[in-house]
Specification:
The chain has about 250 residues and is an all-alpha fold. The chain has 2 domains: about 100 residues, no CATH class; about 140 residues, Serine Threonine Protein Phosphatase 5, Tetratricopeptide repeat (Alpha Horseshoe), CATH 1.25.40. The chain has 13 helices and no strands. Helix 3 packs across helix 5 and helix 11 runs antiparallel to helix 12.
Length: about 250
């Protein structure tokens, strides 16, 4: 049997409900309308089915919500109900599942470590400016290569500088960043550990960059190690402490 085409106003109303976070009163009105309006129940069920929202296997919380809805309507004999009534309960169950899924997503604060790191790299390590100091021209040349995406050449420039001056903290930092953007995480960690070990610097992002690299690599144990470094950055007020505090709440 073909399902009739949704009225445009109903489609907008249903779509708005599922794409936004409705208030409790709006949720109640929506569910009541499903139970009271056969045509609307069919349209909701069709919308959910068409958008692939119903999953084959539901989590236990969703199943419990279905049981509650079933108990509320237990006095109604399923066998005696016409097809349209069955549409109502299917749609109501789908709405309940969606509410549960939305709540779970809303209160789940854990962020994917590699995506968190990737966003930071994209926003903060794509275009860099040189800090004036020793060998500023050589650093600027390396940064120009880094900023234009010529990462292997940039890394070669910074490593060439380190051959003549192994203590050049800026070259160490930018070599590490070049390796990080090349997804050469082991080598990036090597440089950032060197940077973190340097003392007497006005500002040292070494430990923060180590944590950033571990989050981006995201191997077994990397997240735990990164969180420990972030705690050290936060507690010791090192460079990156505000970002470290924000990330610790999300991880």
């Amino acid at each position: 049997m073909l399902i009739k085409k949704m009225e445009m106003d109903n489609l907008d109303y249903i779509e708005d409900y599922f794409k936004n976070q409705p208030a409790d009163e709006q949720k109640q009105q929506f569910e009541q309308r499903i139970l009271a309006d056969d045509s609307f129940a069919e349209e909701v069920a069709f919308y959910l089915s068409a958008n692939g929202i119903i999953k084959d296997q539901l989590q236990q919380e969703k199943k419990q919500r279905f049981r509650e809805i079933y108990q509320q309507q237990k006095e109604v004999s399923v066998k005696k109900q016409p097809v349209k009534i069955m549409w109502r309960y299917a749609a109501a169950a789908c709405v309940a599942a969606l509410i549960i899924m939305s709540s779970m997503l809303l209160f789940n604060k854990h962020a994917a470590p590699d995506k968190l790191a990737a966003n930071y790299i994209k926003e903060n390590l794509q275009t860099l400016s040189v800090t004036m100091g020793t060998n500023a021209d050589s650093l600027q040349n390396g940064l120009n290569l880094l900023n234009t995406g010529k990462l292997p050449k940039a890394l070669k420039q910074f490593e060439s500088m380190l051959q003549y001056d192994a203590a050049n903290t800026e070259a160490i930092k930018y070599a590490g960043i070049a390796c990080l953007r090349l997804d050469n995480y082991d080598k990036a960690l090597y440089y950032f550990k060197q940077l973190a070990a340097r003392t007497g610097l006005y500002s040292n992002p070494g430990k923060f960059y180590q944590s950033l690299t571990l989050l981006k690599r995201n191997n077994n144990g990397d997240e735990a190690a990164a969180k420990q470094l972030l705690r050290e950055v936060k507690e010791n007020k090192l460079e990156g402490e505000q970002t470290a505090a924000a990330w610790l709440e999300k991880l």
